[in-house]
Fold:
Amino acid sequence: STFDKHRSVFDALGLDKTNNKGVFDGEWKGSGNIVPSYNPVNNEIIAEVITGTPDDLNTAFEKVAEAQKIWREMPIPKRGHVMLTMRNALVENLQPLGELVALEMGKILPEGIGEVQEYIDVLEYALGLSRSMQGAIIPSERPGHAMLETWNPLGTVGIISAFNFPVAVYGWNCAIALITGNGTVWKPAPTTSLVSIAVTRIIAKALKQHDIPTSLCALVTGGTDVGEAMTHDKRAHVLSFTGSTKVGREVGKVVQGRFGKSILELGGNNAIIVTDDCDLDLAARAILFAAVGTAGQRCTTTRRLIVQETVYDTLIERLKKAYTQVKVGDPMDKGVLCGPLHTKEAVEIYKKALERVKAEGGEIIVGGRVIDSGPLKDGNFVEPTMTRVRPDMEVVQNEAFVPILHTMTYKTLDEAIAINNNVAQGLSSSIFTSNPSTIFKWIGPSGSDCGIINVNIPTNGAEIGGAFGGEKETGGGRESGSDSWKQYCRRGTCTINYSGALPLAQGINFG
Ligand code: NAD
Structure:
């Protein structure tokens, strides 16, 4: 079985085959359903998790609030030391945790490790913030007055995460929530519970080393019931949701209804524009990685390729060749570039999307087959696929979370930008060009309307130092770097009168 074959990974991370408790609030427990985790390579059960319930969540919120009272009083540079311990603990566990991500989620091992590295990076970033986080001092118009801004924690950050980045999405939120003085409650995707248990164990150990109540970072695994309960709960002062636009739309409304703060990181429909003045070789390599990597299951996967018509045939010929050389297979095997889809349902989504392409008059130009024979037949494997479509087709408007790249042509830059912007989502976008005026148009007011606007790199592969997120139906949230930390804080505008008199603002005289 998968478990026995990879025994050393489970041993290193303290996981069992059957008795994994899926709730942590300072103690390990779980009173919900027993849910298996499947290996997407062969649909074998890897191990079972005793998941959590809304009741478990209720207790977790209480425990986090108690711990946060202590944590928020800790000087920020001291909180930074805790980030450093967490970072070191993750570095120690980089290999087994990366392997577990590959096993449970299905992404190839280098990407599994890369995603743990992302958490490590963001902890380093948080350590930096611990010495540099600053508020403003603002000139007061009144004599003998000082005006300044304070940034204090909001309390508890609820984190609901998607299956496709089972470590990194939590990592971005957890590190920044903690350094700003908050506690966290995490509800991971139900199909990646093992990873969330392993991560929580590592983080709890680091907290313990500093004598901080380990309930500061709670975990409640489970399904929609736990997610909904968290969304409605006023104690989730910030609700950071990463997932589909469909669910995020509802989550956003509920959180707004209780005047909570939400950070929404939803679906993308990311495009690369290829101009005739770019390095086509570089573009082809970038496109392949961006469209096929993680089997098309990144929020930033390239889903649309908008190519200047004069270079379309040349580029597509190169891509076709590259596509047929992509090794599909077990994500733990060396040389494999494309692993399985995460679930059987995703295979159906792949099939339906391709039927839709054909029904609307599009064409499959490479791939297009579910791999249902040979050694991969028991897993959720599909061929990475390219289609030829028109930009106005309905199938091109929606995000199918599978490795399908829709290709289309354009004549002028304005037309290409219009195609890029003319979808409901606004996460990531990229242009390949060597022309500086094209670059500045692209990043300017008449350019890409996305949150991530790249030049000569693909749509994926964001660094943690920038703010990550997108516009429109992607939800508007920003996470990780830049000034994203402010979203986890309440801003205090403080005016301090040391004059002994009482001058009013705007020169008002009360007589
Ligand atoms: P999903 O929306 O099905 O699930 C996301 C999470 O929400 C899971 O933990 C799920 O259990 C929970 N959930 C489901 N129903 C809920 C409800 N009614 N209330 C509260 N929580 C609920 O998404 P998924 O299939 O896990 O992930 C894929 C999607 O996530 C894609 O659309 C992808 O683009 C998006 N994504 C976006 C980003 C980003 O940063 N923008 C990053 C990763 C993934």
About this structure: Residues 295 and 314 are 24 Å apart (CA to CA). The chain has a mean pLDDT of 97. Residues 160-165, 187, 189-190, 223-224, 227-228, 231, 242-244, 247, 250-251, 265-268, 299, 399, 401, 427, 474 surround nicotinamide-adenine-dinucleotide (CB under 6 Å).
